From TrEMBL:
Name of the protein this chain belongs to: DUF72 domain-containing protein
Transmembrane segments: none
Length: 283
């Protein structure tokens, strides 16, 4: 099974009719896509009531890939005591319980920062995170190339398999050391995550010096040729890992929804027609 969705549901104007209220966007989103990445959980640990509402207003077969809170992956660059770390993980797990209990949790995504290199200390941190998450499915994504050098690639993949991590495969600009190569190898027989970040090499780390570089980092529209290549890759991955969760994160220019719908069509998946007033935006 291949499920395709987007990172967040707030900014994809292609699929929303004019004047739609913010609180109605997730319902509208779920008409077109069967999964979504919750990225707001990276910035704050939500109250369970909010997750419960999201689970309730989506179809029974809809799923959520929930991004781990930034304090859990070291993005805050703060030092936490054991008590603080324990409470952080427990609060996060409590927050996602309604989604998990409702059978709608795809996985929790641990995306580690670009400075998180391959070292014994960081391997220990990953092991600790997995232990703290218990039996909750967790996906692992690196941003430092040292994890997938020719010398470390097989060791990293074996480690992920042994520890029970789902591989989050990336299509992203090759700007070293703060990016990873495309490694098309699942580490879990049940599920694999594939995230499309675009290929805007100039904007990946500094946006070419632009002040708003974070807003242009994911400015990229995949061509039909690139998507056809990916359709073939996904078909192979599906044979190796039963559930392939695809997330388009290339939305600095609003391209994610269009690219996702194009890939859905290429794969022959169930595609919903856009409202007439939105069709011109697709071109």
């Amino acid at each position: 099974m291949i499920s395709i969705g987007l990172a967040g549901w707030g900014d994809h104007e292609l699929i929303y009719p004019t004047g739609i209220k913010p609180q109605d966007r997730l319902k509208q989103y779920s008409k077109y896509f069967s999964t979504v990445e919750v990225d707001s959980s990276y910035y704050a640990i939500h109250k369970p009531a909010l997750m419960e509402r999201w689970a309730a207003e989506t179809p029974s077969d809809f799923t959520f890939l929930i991004k781990a809170y930034q304090g859990m992956t070291g993005h805050t660059r703060q030092s936490y005591s054991e008590q603080e770390t324990h409470q952080m993980f427990e609060s996060f797990k409590e927050s996602i319980e309604p989604v998990q209990d409702g059978g709608k949790l795809k996985a929790v995504l641990f995306q580690y920062p670009p400075w998180f290199d391959c070292s014994r200390g960081n391997v220990s941190l990953i092991r600790s995170a997995k232990e703290r998450m218990g039996d909750i499915p967790v996906a692992l994504e690196f941003r430092h190339q040292s994890w997938f050098t020719p010398e470390m690639r097989s060791k990293t993949l074996s480690f992920m398999r042994d520890e029970g991590w789902i591989h989050s495969i990336c299509d992203e600009p090759q700007v070293f050391p703060g990016s990873i190569p495309m490694v098309l190898e699942p580490t879990d027989s049940k599920i694999t995550v594939v995230r499309f970040h675009g290929r805007n090499a100039g904007g990946w780390t500094s946006g070419g010096g632009a002040k708003d570089w974070r807003e242009v980092r994911y400015l990229y529209r995949y061509s039909m040729e690139e998507l056809r290549e990916w359709a073939a890759r996904l078909t192979v991955l599906e044979k190796q890992s039963g559930d392939i969760c695809v997330i388009f994160n290339n939305n600095s220019g609003g391209d994610a929804a269009a690219n996702a719908m194009q890939l859905i069509e290429l794969l022959g998946l169930d595609k919903k027609e856009l409202p007439p007033e939105q069709l011109e935006m697709f071109e």
